[in-house]
Amino acid sequence: MxxxxxxxxxxxxxxxxxxxxxxxDPDDNLRRTLRAIRQAARQGARIICTQELFxxxxxxxxxxxxxxxxxxxxxxxxxxxxxxxxRELHVVLIASLxxxxxxxxxxxxxxxxxxxxxLAGLYRKMHIPDDPLYYEKFYFTPGDLxxxxxxxxxxxxxxxxxxxxxxxxxxxxTALQGAEILFYPTAIGWHPSEKAEHGEKQHAAWEIIQRSxxxxxxxxxxxxxxxxxxxxxxxxxxxxxxxxxxxxxGPSGELLAKASSDRExxxxxxxxxEALDITRTHWPFLRDRRIDAYAGLTRRWLDPAGPGAxx
Length: 311
Prior knowledge:
Blueprint: E1 12-19, H1 26-42, E2 47-49, H2 77-89, E3 92-102, E4 105-113, E5 119-124, E6 130-131, E7 134-135, E8 149-151, E9 156-159, H3 168-175, E10 181-185, E11 189-190, H4 195-217, E12 220-224, E13 227-230, E14 240-243, E15 247-249, E16 255-258, E17 265-272, H5 275-282
Parallel strand pairs: 1-2, 2-3, 9-10, 10-12
Antiparallel strand pairs: 1-17, 3-4, 4-5, 6-7, 8-9, 11-14, 12-15, 13-14, 15-16
Helix pairs in contact: 1-2, 3-4
């Protein structure tokens, strides 16, 4: 008698994204985030991600040396609090932090904490912006750990941070290491004076580019954004209106869950990890990549007139 085929047990996981308003008090932001994590865990979330730099207001709106005091080492007080909670609740946590690595050396870093409370590893933001009200190059050294995938209890996760989300290379290199879910802790919003003219297009581009990463790599994408209007006393103008709208996209780019534009929320989504293999075998983009033809991607620019051309 032929052996009966037994299908593998479905691998499903519920994830949670914490979309919150930040206050000027780092300790208050930490307490509220820990409460939100508990609530997400009670609702069944097993992997929970914070927004970018959740412990403070988005201080990169100006260049001010005083804000370096917000940074902390890793391991440090926040990671230890997250480790205790992860161990207690048996959840995987992704915490976006301002890392003080050494005197004069700071990073925008995500700590990945496994469900046993161990520190699975760090991802340091690779792409650092320098735009009006996003003066991150003043504060952050570009990441030097590369793009990483972390094998946690519930899934293989990759973490990229905010400005990284515009780069298909970052998503691809993380997915090629086996990441099933790409998490993007984020702090993005409108300049209020530009919202009427550019807001709709800006938000659409942000969502489309990340959903395209899900399609191109046959994986899930989860973006956790801030919400609320933040204006620093040190900064002239209207500050930033963070647009919220955290979301989770499936491997065909479909929206599985989406938060509001103006409220604090815990966004939950149920992911079927077994479906990724089905998607990738029906849309075999990874199979058909021409890795012999992509050397130009490591160059800054490909001049059609050749490297020695005079202009």
